[in-house]
Amino acid sequence: MGTWLHDLVAVSKAIGAAFAALAGQAAAGRLLFAMARDRRLPGVVAKVNAHSGVPRRALLSAAVVTLVAVVWAARRDDGLDRLWSRWSTSAP
User: How many C-beta atoms lie closer than 10 Å to residue 15's C-beta?
Assistant: First the structure.
């Protein structure tokens, strides 16, 4: 079939991963917003944009935490392994 099918699948995988990451960021931001609204986190995270109603500070907080974790993991040879082991062993 040639390389066109390979290229199509590769592009589909990349787009799918990007949308999954975007949905994960939105979910994390909404979780932070809900926790702040219920006074489990500082109230500044619970503020929403007056015009759009979007919890921008919560979304930005989730993005910053993710960015810090990605940069930390990318700078180490075993960064992804160490990051995963921290998450998987932190459960009670």
Answer: 10
Residue 44 DSSP class: G
What are the residue boundaries of the structural domains of the chain, listed by start? 4-89
The average pLDDT across 61-65 equals 93
Tell me if 58 sits within 8 A of 32, measured CB to CB: yes
Please give the span between the terminal C-alpha atoms of the chain, in angstroms, as a whole number: 50
Contacts 24+ apart (CB under 8 A), 64-68: 65/28, 66/25, 66/28
pTM listed for this prediction:
0.72
Does residue 79 contact residue 73 with C-beta atoms inside 8 Å? yes
